[in-house]
Amino acid sequence: MINDIRILQGAQALGWLEARRLLPRGEFLALAQNLKGEEGLEIAETIKKVWQTFETMPKTYDTREVENTTAHLHFFTGSWDWYITERDVETRQLQAFGFVKSELCPDGEWGYINLEEITRAGAELDLYFTPAPVSTFTA
Fold this sequence. Notes:
Layout: H1 2-19, H2 25-34, H3 40-56, E1 70-71, E2 73-77, E3 80-87, E4 95-101, E5 109-114, H4 115-120, E6 124-125, E7 132-133, H5 135-138
Antiparallel strand pairs: 1-7, 2-3, 2-6, 3-4, 4-5
Helix pairs in contact: 1-2, 1-3
């Protein structure tokens, strides 16, 4: 019974992540299906952890004075990596601020990131990312 409630909470968190355009459709569907499988409880806990990170991470401009700010979320596809340091303050998440790095821009650059645009293009949310200072990824 308790495990069923935890899986339901994971499914709700998954819905919230998808509604805020933090997951591409394929990743959402795969996670929703996996919640029904043998590892459903583990996946539910992972999804809830990512949701909690999103809910508690700094909002736009909160870290502008921080010298080595923390990347809280990571999106990736091919040679592209987006490290999200701040989320938009709007209820419906569309953009964030962070650091992007790719083979086209190996030194990376800071800027606003349209999350809906990158997930629509296939970028996946790294569910197992551990928040770390951005300097970790700029070397």
